């Protein structure tokens, strides 16, 4: 099936030989597929399977431990692997390797297995095709909200049941629909992965001179031996990394050696998004608000905030008061971004305000990534030894002691540094999105990024309590 995004239209030489196209030296130099062992590995049956099966084994152990192991989160192997190691590592992976995690994610492998065994391969529903990213945004918000209402992170059982529910969704969509419909339109991590990978340091693209003469469409359809792109992408028309999980299928199936995997400057993709979308800018602002509320719930002033809210709501019922705080926290960055967009389009139309909101919303993404990482550095470095201790306990060795890998002061310095790097990334993205306009014209956006960074640094400067 060919989607409306368009397919490669091309020709291969009659002798079926690999087409040779001159590639500028600067591009050829940085193509990782020019390294023989890298190309051979990615084209082999071992990639990404060796990583997928390793992840599947670990995932199975994690789910078992969460559902059947100790209910003490600080002693549960599944809790420490999921929330102390995996969740903090996710933004780093997306920054360095793009959506590579999605290539080895257990959910993706489960989807592949189910579709191969019992999948009916029906086309993705039009509703999901049109509103999938909004569904992803909603699921991400709902899961974050439910964690604070039902204490999923603090509860091994809650974490385990969440993973089982997600697995059920994966199986259900894979039975009925083609490719990785769940990953593309329903996975709560998809929006986060898409936004963060746009800031990433790695990209996969086709070589235009080769793709424009190709008729096989194998990057999308597959070649009989290798499945087409599981994320519904045409390499020829792909101009962003939001939906590329570096699975290597196109590398295996392309008959013309068109595919390039190249390092790039972090945030570079954000500078020239051809078709900016409101849902991406909305999610960028929402993630910033979620980082705020995640920090607030770990501070000593959280109870004072709840008391203030309870006077307004006239109830002490936690779900109600937390929901108010949660919504307000998300709305603050949205309102700040919208206000800045309106300020810079004071003489423009409402369409101009929306255009500014959407375009410059992408500039918030580096700070999102920094805030997410900085928040989780606290867990990684003040609870990190739990991974070692609980792994030992899993094999019958009783290990105890201080969980911290670094002092709180050291962690705070790391957090400040990460936020400052995020600020540099966001400020430079503003500069590039604004077509390198004078600092006076872009001053409101620079001020917004500085304000968001200052709020983050202030929150990280306050003493935090462990949730697990």
Distinctive features:
globular, 21 helices, mainly alpha, 468 residues, 2% strand, two-stranded antiparallel sheet, single chain
What is the share of helical residues?
Answer: 55-70%
Oligomer: single chain
N-to-C series of helices and strands: HHHHHHHHHHEHHHEHHHHHHHH
Question: Structural class, please?
Answer: mainly alpha
Q: Enumerate the spans where pLDDT stays under 50 for 5 or more consecutive residues.
A: 1-27
Give the percentage of residues in beta strands.
Answer: under 5%
User: Mean pLDDT, rounded to whole units?
Assistant: 89
Radius of gyration of CA atoms, rounded to a whole number: 23 Å
Beta strands, count: 2
What's the end-to-end separation, in Å? 48 Å
Tally of helical runs: 21
Strand order of the largest sheet: 1-2
Shape: globular
Report the major sheet.
2 strands, antiparallel
Give a description of the structure:
It is a single chain. The model is unreliable at 1-27 (pLDDT under 50). The protein has a two-stranded antiparallel sheet with strand order 1-2. α3 packs across α8 (156-176), α14 (278-296) packs across α17 and α16 packs antiparallel against α21 (439-461). The protein is mainly alpha-helical and 468 residues long. It has helices at 25-30, 36-43, 49-68, 77-97, 100-104, 106-118, 126-150, 156-176, 181-185, 190-198, 208-211, 218-221, 249-253, 278-296, 302-313, 318-343, 350-361, 365-382, 385-394, 408-433, 439-461, and strands at residues 202-206, 259-263.
């Amino acid at each position: 099936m060919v989607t409306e995004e368009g397919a490669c239209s091309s020709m291969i030489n009659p002798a079926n030989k690999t087409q040779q196209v001159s590639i500028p030296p600067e591009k050829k130099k940085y193509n990782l597929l020019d390294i023989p062992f890298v190309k051979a590995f990615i084209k082999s049956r071992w990639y990404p399977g060796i990583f997928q099966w390793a992840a599947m084994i670990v995932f199975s152990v994690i789910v078992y431990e969460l559902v059947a192991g100790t209910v003490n989160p600080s002693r549960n192997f599944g809790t420490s692997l999921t929330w102390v190691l995996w969740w903090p590592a996710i933004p780093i992976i997306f920054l360095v390797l793009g959506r590579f995690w999605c290539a080895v994610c257990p959910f993706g492998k489960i989807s592949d297995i189910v579709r191969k065994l019992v999948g009916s391969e029906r086309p993705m529903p039009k509703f999901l095709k049109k509103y999938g990213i909004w569904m992803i945004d909603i699921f991400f918000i709902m899961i974050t909200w439910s964690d604070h209402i039902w204490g999923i992170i603090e509860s091994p059982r809650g974490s385990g049941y969440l993973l089982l529910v997600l697995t059920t969704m994966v199986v259900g969509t894979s039975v009925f629909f083609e490719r990785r419909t769940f990953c593309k339109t329903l996975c709560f991590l998809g929006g986060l992965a898409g936004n963060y990978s746009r800031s990433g340091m790695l990209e996969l693209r086709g070589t235009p001179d080769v793709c424009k003469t190709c008729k096989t469409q194998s990057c999308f359809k597959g070649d009989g031996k290798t499945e087409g792109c599981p994320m519904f992408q045409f390499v020829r028309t792909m101009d962003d990394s939001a939906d590329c999980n570096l699975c290597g299928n196109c590398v295996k199936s392309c008959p013309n050696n068109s595919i390039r995997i190249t390092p790039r400057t972090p945030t570079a993709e954000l500078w020239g998004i051809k078709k900016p979308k409101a849902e991406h800018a909305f999610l960028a602002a929402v993630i910033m608000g979620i980082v705020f509320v995640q920090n607030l719930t770990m501070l000593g002033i959280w109870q004072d905030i709840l008391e203030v809210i309870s006077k307004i709501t006239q109830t002490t019922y936690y779900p109600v008061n937390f929901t108010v705080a949660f919504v307000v926290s998300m709305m603050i960055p949205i309102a700040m971004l919208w206000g800045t967009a309106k300020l810079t389009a004071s003489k423009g139309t409402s369409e101009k305000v929306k255009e500014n909101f959407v375009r410059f919303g992408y500039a918030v993404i580096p700070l999102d990534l920094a805030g997410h990482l900085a928040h989780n550095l606290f867990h990684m470095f003040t609870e990190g030894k739990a991974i070692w201790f609980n792994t030992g306990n899993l094999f019958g060795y009783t290990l105890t002691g201080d969980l911290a890998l670094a002092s709180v002061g050291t962690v705070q310095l790391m957090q400040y540094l990460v936020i400052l790097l995020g600020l540099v990334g966001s400020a430079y993205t503003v500069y590039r999105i604004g077509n390198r306009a004078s600092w006076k014209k872009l001053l409101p956006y620079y001020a917004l990024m500085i304000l968001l960074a200052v709020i983050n640094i202030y929150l990280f400067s306050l003493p935090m309590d462990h949730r697990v």
